[in-house]
Amino acid sequence: MSVRTLMIKDVIFISSVASVKDVADLMLEKSVGSIIILENHEPIGIVTEGDLVRLVLAQGKDPNNTNVKEIMSQPLITIGPNASVGEVGETMARHGIERLPVIEDGKLIGIIAEQELTQWHAKEFEKVKRKLNLLSGKN
Could you say which of 3.10.580.10, 3.20.20.80, 3.90.226.10, 3.50.50.60 is the CATH number of the domain covering 3-114? Predict the structure, then answer.
């Protein structure tokens, strides 16, 4: 199974000149847990809900006066659309991240998160379980 099949294609992004408040508002509006940060139409970083809590709220920063570049994770760790599920898991584990933007020909085309991997693994497990049940005569 490739990333292209599992990725979310509707990626939410914002300009690097935005404030943290703008990012939080957009996350709330779009019901997402992360936003890709663009500069000159290129993805340069990512901000997650956890970043907002750890790097802004817990430190008493003013979200209206804090630029998103001050808290975004960078460099942006990405993956290609033809990578396997195994490669996604390895990359996430190696970098300690839960989301991977998908880049093709230098363009942001999607994002894949641990949630998509978990759902895929659960479906695959159910397929194997059904096959084993059929082989053992259980229905």
Answer: 3.10.580.10
